[in-house]
Amino acid sequence: MNNVEKFLIFCSGAYLPLVRRCPVSSTRFMGIGTTVLFTAIFAGLSVSYALSTVFSSFWVILGIALIWALMIFNLDRYIVSTLKKQDQFFPEFKQALPRLVLALMIALVIAKPLELRIFEKEINRELDEQRLATIENSREKIAAGYPEINDLESKIESLQAGIAAKEDFRNQKQVEYDQERFGVKTEGTTGLAGIGINAEKKEKQLDQAVKDYQYIQKLNEGRIQDLEAEIRRINVLKEQEFQNQMVSLDAYDGLAARLQTFRDLTLKNAAIFWANWMIIFLFVMIEMAPILVKLMGSRGPYDQLLDFHEAGIVLAGEEQWYKKSGDSALRKEVFDELYDKRKASRVDFELGMLGEK
Question: Fewer CB within 10 Å, N or C, the chain?
Fold first, then answer.
């Protein structure tokens, strides 16, 4: 038996000196040990991905992942090693039931981070869509929190309309003046070409319109600049508030967010829903496999020798106690009673007590 086989038997929780006496059982225990080992490896990979969403240091992730894998390994090994074969199915099933429940919980814990890793691209795409929707919603809410911007823009439009009205009035006076000079007959002109009294009146009206336009233009443009400066100041505040919200939004990429997003994906996409359940079922079966193998297998020579070995330890303790009490007759009675209950030969019984040999 080489070192790899010894290690796999150790992983199965079996007692190596007794397995050596039962070569036919070594293959079964190596299979159980391999399953326990790979379950621990999957647990380490699973928690390392989960930790990558929290920590950025490789060594921190590696250290915690190793501790977690060793803990799962020790727990699985304990679950398998404490399940003993008996002659009846229902007592064995009753003994295995809490272990199966514990294995189910371990499988669910291991499977979930690996599911997130398998469907990482789909989750990232869904997170991006949610992030864009959140950004748009945030901008709308921030804009709703600054209604004064609309008032300022309305004032700017009103001032610009005032400038446009004065400009239109000036252009109108310019047309009337030109028509009077060039003798164009209209309702407001004489139709006589040249600079006459009416042309001089039109010129004065034009000059006044130009002055009014220039005055309003200068006055309103100054007011518009002040209003635009106020709008820019408010926009700076809006942008600052938006950036503050983006800090928390950019951080919305942790384990809880991915779990919630993955749940939303399973509800929207039937293919992901069934793939999710198939992966969970796979890990549940992997985790329960060692227990089910032991539960469905028949009682073998290893189980018999294990009973002998444990009985020998118990008997050795009782013999020590009776030896101290000095009651040799009672010690012989206890020895013979346990011997009769086991219904084994004297040689096999001594093998059970001296399994190290």
Answer: C
Question: What are 20-41's pLDDT values in tens digits?
Answer: 777 777 877 888 888 888 888 8
Cα separation, 301 vs 310, in Å, equals 14
pTM of the model: 0.50
Alpha helices in the chain (DSSP H): 3-12, 16-20, 23-52, 58-81, 89-118, 120-144, 148-181, 197-250, 255-268, 270-296, 301-325, 328-342, 346-353
- Secondary structure string (H, E, C) spanning 308-354: HHHHHHHHHHHHHHHHHHCCHHHHHHHHHHHHHHHCCCHHHHHHHHC
d(CA 357, CA 339) in angstroms, rounded, equals: 20
Residue 66 contacts residue 133 (beta carbons within 8 Å): no
Q: Show me where the domains of the chain are located.
A: 3-118+269-298, 141-252, 300-357
Question: To which residue do tokens 């006076």 refer?
Answer: 173
Sequence-distant (6+) residues with CB within 8 A of 131 are 249, 252
Contact between 355 and 313 under an 8 Å Cβ cutoff? The reply is no
User: Which residue bears the tokens 């250290």?
Assistant: 63
pLDDT at 73 over 80: yes
Higher pLDDT, 11 or 329: 11
How crowded is residue 239: how many other Cβ atoms within 10 Å of its Cβ?
A: 11
What DSSP designation does 40 have? H
Q: Tokens 């090994």 correspond to what residue?
A: 77
- Tell me how far apart the alpha carbons of residues 10 and 167 are, in angstroms, rounded to a whole number: 97
Tokens of 187: 């309702």
Q: Which residues contact 266 (CB under 8 A, 6 or more apart)?
A: 272, 273, 276
- What are the backbone dihedrals phi and psi of residue 343, each rounded to the nearest 5 degrees, phi first? 55, 45
Give per-residue pLDDT as tens, 318-337.
Answer: 556 555 655 555 555 655 55
- pLDDT band (50, 70, 90) for residue 352: very low
